Amino acid sequence: MTKVSRWKSFISLAVAVLLPFATTFLPAPPRNDFHSLFLSSAAPPASNTTVSDHLRRLTARPHVSGSPADALVARYVSDVLSSAALPTHSVRYDVLLTFPSFRSLTLSSPELRLPVALPLTQLHVPGHPSPFSDEVVPTFHAYAPSGSAVGPAVYANYGRREDFSALARLGINVSRSVVVARYGKIHRGDIVKNAHHAGAAGVVIYTDTADYGSESDGWFPESRWMPPSGVQVGTVYNGAGDPTTPGWASTLEMAGGCERAGPPEGAVADIPSLPISAADAAIILKEIGGPVADEAWHGLLDVPVYRLGPGPAVLNLTYIAKESITTIENVFALIRGTEEPDRYVILGNHRDAWTYGAVDPNSGTATLLEISGRLEKLMKRGWKPRRSIILCNWDAEEYGLIGSTEWVEENREVLRSKAIAYLNVDIAVAGPGFHAYATPQLDDILKQVTQQVEDPDNSSRTVYDAWIDSGDTPLIGRLGGGGSDYAPFVQHVGVPAVDMFFGGGYPVYHSIYDDYQWMEKFGDPMFRRHVAAASIWGLLALRLADDKILPFNYLSYATELQSSAKELEAGEIDKSVSFVPLYESIEKLRKSAVEINKQKEFARDAWFSKWTKTQTLPVRDLNDRMMMAERAFTDADGLFKGPWYKHLIYGPSKQDDYGSKSFPGIDDAIEEAKNANSLDPWKHVQHEIWRAARAITQASLVLSGEFT
Ligand SMILES: [Zn+2]
Fold it and tell me: What is the pTM of this model?
């Protein structure tokens, strides 16, 4: 053996012995590098084309929940996720859905010689007839009860409590009438409920040009506004999940089925209702007599003047529902984490649409699929998340958050112990301008992430710059409403969550006109907003899945609770009520938040200074305390609205399902007390204050990790 060959063999021996160690010690590229790659892989035009292509395919046919077309869209979603090399599976449930079997609305009045049968039909966009138009579900209200209502018409503005109180003050008799109310301020289920309380026999809810149109611009397809025949379809169910399985999962019948009970009290409407178009409403409003409505109640329909009634117009409404136990399907993809596979960051969007659903919800679905493609690129370069990531595509959201709720109910305890956060995108894009709602410990990370993404409408600034200029007050809203699939996560289990979108309200909401053409012409012509939505949503998930120390800040929570408590206290409150227990608990939470933020700094320094295994446990403990603190805001007894709503800080209030107020229990108790004539109900307000205070104290203990 020569000297050279001896050296060679020594080197090859050394390599053979040391290589396994070398690969063990060789650090993978920092995860931050992959996060930059995630953002840069959105370079145009690639992503714009992929996302618009997904949207066109997703919205090719009307796909209401439970329909064959909805099942085909589920296949498309699962095929795209699998082709991105993500392990994909479906979970199905058998749930109660309702479909319209018969609808009629006739108007008679002394001015009309014969009763007029209103068409109740949305006209197809001229020049763009859909080859699948026979799949369009006739306009209806999901879960409206079957029945007939005949009575004089009464105009009730937005159908809010205050609108019915105003009618009562004016002596307008709503009893046994058919109420005509306009969409725009409160959840349609609450409009029906308020009308029922006022004694009405039935309700029609219409879309006024004042709220969804423009006097001068015309309408879709020429402009973005709702055409006169457009109807906002939707649910009047005031709950979450399958109404026949309140609190538990609607297991498939073929898998043995499950217990079925009636819906919780007050969750479903008591009187029949129908949504109608501006065109149909104008015909009715012309025939309503009685006093002229207040100026603020006037819309922009072609009516000489808006009057209150009752009558002389008489409406005869008949609605027959077909109720059926229907199979729905949620689609999931799971990317298993390497260091903490038992911790989950969950992204979710629903798939089912009232008709084509290009804005609601498939702008979100297309965005989720775009994220899956970018994650595939990262994985090909060697990225693996620290924690597990689940991508969820829900079914039957439109009926009442059903797909997500059934899954959350089925997996409640696993989610309680293992879910880091739930990131919801329902509508991803309806127009320009970013908006967000979140539980407050996520405020900071949301701001940081939007600072890293370019504003899709002005490349010289970030989404964050545009957002703070938008005038949103507060900048980040809260998740008390029942508006989308975040509700079961936050309000039933106490999982930190985010809900976000570009554009906010849009005129063709829940109508046949929410289609690909509307999106391409008005919602997002270049699909840049979709790409930015994918960047924000994806980067948020990456930070939550990859950051060694969770990017949660509970100081924002304490600050937020302090101002919400002040707001409540500033209302009309009896002087026997004390807010001191609430303020004291918030102070405890603030102290724990300051303390854990210090511990986070320390853990971060310790981590960078020495890579020893002994660091793992304290960091895990630190993260678990931050993950679990949100759960402490939940209470087994739940809220006024029902025991399913367990979160005492964020939940819907009794009078408004869209409501996003904090402390709904205290708020509802105050409402009741104000309307009562004795002091007793104020004791109940005090009780609700104590309950919230106890929950906040529990959260402060979870955060500090100490026993008393
Ligand atoms: Zn939606």
Answer: 0.93
What is the pLDDT of the chain when averaged over all its residues?
Answer: 92
> Ligand 1: distance of its center to the CA of 135 in Å?
19
Per-residue pLDDT tens for 575-587? 999 999 999 999 9
Nearest Cα neighbor of 297 from 406, 185, 391, 417 is 185
pLDDT at residue 590 is higher than 70: yes
Distance from Cα 222 to the centre of ligand 1, integer Å: 25
How high is the pLDDT of residue 263?
A: 80
Sign of CA dihedral 454, 455, 458, 462: negative
Token digits of residue 182:
């306009």
Residue 405 alpha carbon to ligand 1 centre in Å: 14
Near ion ligand 1, which residues have CB within 5 Å? Answer: 360-361, 426
Give the distance (Å) from ligand 1 centre to CA of residue 427: 6
First to last CA, the chain: 74
Q: Is the pLDDT of residue 410 over 90?
A: yes
Rounded distance between C-alpha atoms, residue 276 and residue 244, angstroms = 28
- Which residues on adjacent β-strands are paired with residue 332? 89, 392
> Choosing from 397, 398, 560, 688, which is the catalytic residue?
397
Domains defined for the chain, CATH in brackets: 31-87+336-546 (3.40.630.10), 97-324 (3.50.30.30), 554-704 (1.20.930.40)
pLDDT tens track for 92-134: 999 999 999 999 999 999 999 899 999 999 998 776 667 778 8
Q: 365, 63 in Cβ contact below 8 A?
A: no
Q: Torsions phi, psi of 303, nearest 5?
A: -130, 135
CA 253 – ligand 1 centroid, Å: 27
Active site residue 162: no
What separation in Å is there between the alpha carbon of 481 and the centre of ligand 1? 14
Does 287 score more than 80 pLDDT?
yes
Residue 313 in this model has a pLDDT that exceeds 50: yes
- Write out the E strands in 476-551: 476-477, 497-502
Q: Residue 677 — very low, low, confident or very high, per pLDDT cuts 50/70/90?
A: confident
Tokens representing 631 are 């759960």
What is 93-154 written as a DSSP string?
A: EEEEEEEEEEEEEEEE-TT-SS-EE----PPPPTT---TTGGGSPPS-EETPPPEEEEEEEE
